[in-house]
Amino acid sequence: MRIPWTRDLARARRGTRALGEMFLAAGADYVELGMHGWAKRIDDPRELARFESDGATGGGAYAAAATHLFGTAAMGGDPSRSVVGLDFQHHAVRRLYIADSSVFPANTGVNRQTSILALASLCGRRVAM
């Protein structure tokens, strides 16, 4: 009998591999899977491929969470203290706009989906000008 979520777990392993490979290709020194039984730090794409093929098949082995990341691309007028300007445009990369919770100065501790939607709308108007 096939367990219905095994396909989901295979997809999760594939997605983890793809993300890890992208991070390494972009210059990350290593990635962390956060999975019991795997090296804490992986710096070789072949190990990510092994994770995809040999990773746990039981749902209890995986813990996943998604959240808005705050403050990683802070907005501000001073390029030495922020990543994007008040127009949502990256200080160093022209025409690269960032309009998500990463422009917030820090985690607000509550769901800010409405604020994120408002920021994205403002940015969209700015880009369309």
What's the quick description here?
The protein folds into two domains: about 5-55, no CATH class; about 65-129, no CATH class. Helices cover about 35% and strands about 0% of the residues. It has helices spanning about 5-25, 45-55, 115-129.
Task: Give your account of this protein's structure.
This protein has helices at residues 6-25, 45-54, 113-128. The protein is mainly alpha-helical and 129 residues long. The chain folds into two domains: 6-57, no CATH class; 66-129, no CATH class. The longest helix is centred in the N-terminal third of the chain and has 20 residues, at 6-25. The model has no long low-confidence stretch (mean pLDDT 86).
